[in-house]
Design goal:
- The longest helix is centred in the C-terminal third of the chain and has 20 residues.
- The chain is built from 11 helices and 8 strands.
- The chain has a single domain, classed as Aldolase class I (TIM Barrel, Alpha-Beta Barrel), CATH 3.20.20.70.
- The protein has an 8-stranded parallel barrel with strand order 1-2-3-4-5-6-7-8, surrounded by 7 helices.
- The protein is 48% helix and 17% strand.
- It binds pyridoxine-5'-phosphate.
- The site of pyridoxine-5'-phosphate has 19 residues, from strand 8 and helix 10.
């Protein structure tokens, strides 16, 4: 079974629209766990547009599953992660003006810097993951710097329209997943996934973990967090060819 980590950033987005205390990303995280999620993902952005420092602390303390902290490769964030000690840190590139993470990290051109961060994070017993585009060169660079895992960016795959384009991008994801597993990396994926487009991704045997946020939080408005998470797990199982 693939592990589902539910990203609750956008519960905080709604809260921050009014700078108040509801809705609570912690409550959403606890409901996601109750509904079968194996972990919770949050992205503490440098501009603190949704998740706040205190959210990271209280979610880390209260959840009974695992916390995956997404963050930019900066000194401030490394210090914070070392202080909070999540189960896993996932490094993502960050641009202030972007609406969401726009692409994977260019590990190839940042090998030295990322290697130093990797040492500090792993020294504290925290797993170290890199969000990368589905490119073999990025997979190989991730292995060279000693990452535990890579999260393959499915963003482009989820945005393409024609079946031909989608199938080419899916092949790139499959090749990258295979290469990463051959290199001894654990393979995760995420970005832009919904009940339908998750199925071919869940069918890729090397993929062990999915990070899904925006769609689940959006569905939760209609059907509640618990149903949205359960429905996503159902789709993942169908994609994986598991008995329902
Ligand atoms: N993985 C990474 C690295 C991300 O930055 C995000 C978005 O925060 C996700 C997964 C989840 O993407 P989505 O919210 O589109 O499901």
């Amino acid at each position: 079974m693939i592990r589902l980590f539910v990203n609750v950033d956008h519960v905080a987005t709604v809260r921050e629209a009014r700078k108040t205390i509801e809705p609570s990303p912690l409550k959403a995280a606890l409901l996601a766990e109750k509904s079968g999620a194996q972990g919770i993902t949050i992205h503490l952005r440098e501009d603190r547009r949704h998740i706040q420092d205190n959210d990271v602390k209280i979610i880390q303390k209260a959840i009974i599953t695992k916390l995956n902290l997404e963050m930019a490769p900066t000194q401030e964030m490394v210090n914070l992660a070392i202080d909070i000690r999540p189960f896993q840190v996932s490094l993502v590139p960050e641009k202030r003006q972007e609406i969401t993470t726009e692409g994977g990290l260019d590990v190839c051109s940042l090998e030295k810097e990322l290697s130093l961060i990797r040492e500090k994070i792993q020294a504290k017993g925290i797993l170290f993951s890199l969000f990368i585009d589905p490119e073999l060169a990025q997979v190989d660079a991730s292995q060279r710097i000693g990452a535990d895992s890579v999260e393959i960016n499915t963003g482009k795959y989820t945005e393409l329209e024609t079946p031909e384009e989608i199938s080419i991008e899916l092949e790139r994801i499959k090749f990258s997943a295979k290469r990463a597993a051959e290199r001894g990396l654990k393979v995760f994926a995420g970005h832009g996934l919904n009940y339908e487009n998750v199925k071919p991704i869940a069918a890729i045997p090397e993929i062990e973990e999915l990070n899904i946020g925006h769609f689940i939080v959006g569905q939760a408005i209609y059907v509640g967090m618990e149903n949205a998470v359960r429905e996503m797990i159902h789709s993942i199982k169908i994609g994986r060819g598991q008995n329902i």
